[in-house]
Design brief:
Blueprint: H1 2-5, H2 11-42, H3 49-75, H4 84-92, H5 97-105, H6 115-128
Helix pairs in contact: 3-4, 3-6, 5-6
Pfam families: Na_H_Exchanger
GO biological process, one term: regulation of intracellular pH
Membrane topology: Multi-pass membrane protein
């Protein structure tokens, strides 16, 4: 939305919006990672080495394949093409931990008896990326 807002907002308002958004994003990120840290130390975990390793492997492989395929499609229509370094950064840092962590915490333990293993694996993937 930046391209549309810049033309319709004064310079003072642009500065205010910019720093307000930075403050909100930093505050949100701090709260999320504090909650993640508390959950790492406080919760009971169920560790399964093979499940964690295969999850990390599959996340990396499918993230890489998804980025390569989608950027190849996008580059056909872009004037400024995405380079290999940009693709690498997108594939390594593509999945944000907050969404995955929030979703795994919503799992009902009555429906999924291995919820603790999923939480542990999700935390491992977040720390890896």
């Amino acid at each position: 939305m930046k391209n549309y807002v810049v033309a319709n907002v004064s310079l003072k308002s642009q500065t205010t919006i910019k720093y307000a958004m930075k403050m909100l994003s930093s505050s949100s990120e701090t709260i999320i990672f504090m909650f993640l840290g508390v959950s790492t130390v406080h919760d009971e975990h169920e560790w399964n080495t093979w499940f964690v390793l295969f999850t990390l492997l599959f996340c990396a492989v499918y993230r890489f394949l998804g980025v390569v395929v989608l950027t190849a499609i996008a580059n056909r229509f872009r004037l400024q093409k995405l380079e290999k370094v940009e693709k690498f950064v997108m594939s390594y840092g593509g999945l944000r931990g907050a969404v995955a962590f929030a979703l795994v915490l919503l799992i009902d333990k009555n429906l999924v008896p291995h919820k603790r293993m999923y939480v542990t694996t999700t935390i491992a993937v977040i720390y890896f990326t």
